[in-house]
User: What shape does this take?
Amino acid sequence: MRAVAILAWTLLFVGLAAANMHASPPNVLMIVSDDQAWTDYGFMGHPRIQTPNLDRLARESAVFPRGYVPMSLCRPSLATIITGLYPHQHGTAGNDPRTNRTSGTPRPRNEDYLRLNRACIARFEALQSLPRLLGEHGYASLQTGKWWEGSYAGGGFTQGMTHGDPSRGGRHGDAGLEIGREGVQPILDFIGEHRETPWFVWYAPMLPHSPHNPPERLLAKYRGDGISEHIAAYHAMCELFDETCGALLDALKAHDLERNTLVVYVADNGWIQNPESPQFAARSKRSPYEGGIRTPIMLRWPDQIAPARYDDTLVSSIDLFPTIAAATGATPRAKLPGIDLLSVCAADGKCDRDAVFGEIYEHDMPDIDDPVSGLLFRWIIEGNWKLIAPVTAGVPPELYDLAADPREEHNLADEHPQVVARLSSRLDQWWPVSK
Assistant: This one.
């Protein structure tokens, strides 16, 4: 009887400990790479780029190599991550409102631009944001790096680096863009100051984003072997970004916060370096191709998420908001289009959804109140089929078998019209568009 009693008390203790573990909400560190192709990591098989810290994170995470962002441009993509909505839902369908750029008036003094951008920011601030939702559940939050939507406070962060004042250079991050390139001390300070409060950190540095000006010690590693200076510089920037991620992961360990911190990784959009210039090559940023929209997505939460690699599971950045909400016990006030990836991890990568969707726009928004005005493509990936559907009349669709043709070199639309029709119908069910 005594042994039975001891066993019962032991089971009760373990059960209470597990309940308390779940009752204690995790910190959340969100790492967002800026302009980095899905291939450009050691753990994704790149032969030259060295990313030892992100490789370590991958070994300790649930890794989804087939992650996607709906839009391959930074402002709409970041807005999707922070709201959990597609661009046509949150309304930020480009980086800037379209104004007369030939007038010679810079954006900070262009009254038309300022008026339209203020309207975009006001609309964004009326939406439910992830830091605002977490704040309602006792979280402190810190914004660093890229941030297009005015001041950090308007996005619901309790602290931040970005002031958002156009008269002082505010557009896409201002002072926040120092993070990473000038070290990560503001984040280290924030973590040290919030030992008793759950926190959310937004680390979205302008890395490896241009200007590609890495320190010489890194650039020297990638020169040679006939590699162009532009590619060498980009590769070195990827490693510089990795070093900053390592500093943050080391800080979690130093503060004994690893087990109670959910680390989320995603890139805002892809980038294929043009070997002849500092610019990006075709079929990368701003395009509907894999080089623009694909990104690995990683989730690390020791004891809660088992390390694994789910090579066949399609996931999207729209899934990050509901995933973080589920992990922290926060309930969004409205149903979101994404899914909770914690449940996907618990089911060994299996989920009911078999497709992901996206939309590609012009860089500047022709009409800030009508996303379709700047829409160029819709796209869908179902299993290994990928359909790119232009909205411009007379432009034919493109269909690719990503398993057989990962570089999207062979358009199979004419050979499989029934697949094109079926996927086109699914696009219309997701978001019907007429233009």
Q: What stands out?
A: The radius of gyration is 22 Å.
